[in-house]
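Researcher: Next sequence.
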Amino acid sequence: MTELKTARRRELRSAAHHLHPVVSISYNGLSESVLKEVDLSLKAHELIKVKLHGVERDDRDALIQQICSTLDCASVQQIGNILVLWREKPAEIVPPTKPAMRPATKRLTKRELVDKPRRRAPR
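Model: Next structure:
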């Protein structure tokens, strides 16, 4: 589980203020598919909100600890049934560069086309 300094936590809380929950955890609890969805969302967005439905107040802390330890993320804030989670994005893989294009051929002017000797096709 990642620990955040107070200043960084404050920045993340203000950045998360306008976000909407992208994952919901319902009465079925924390399943593999929910963990996978939270992981995908963290990879894509780095900072997400998770909405809890039907989870008792006593069970929330254990649920947060389980999510954070499993996915190696940090809990930024918990307000009621909304959790704010953060994990730094992994370094992006740089795609290979395209091969260099061949140099452009010089375009001839009209005068150069007229002055250029013509080749005859072989018989």
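Model: Residues 75 and 85 are 5 Å apart (CA to CA). The chain has a mean pLDDT of 86.
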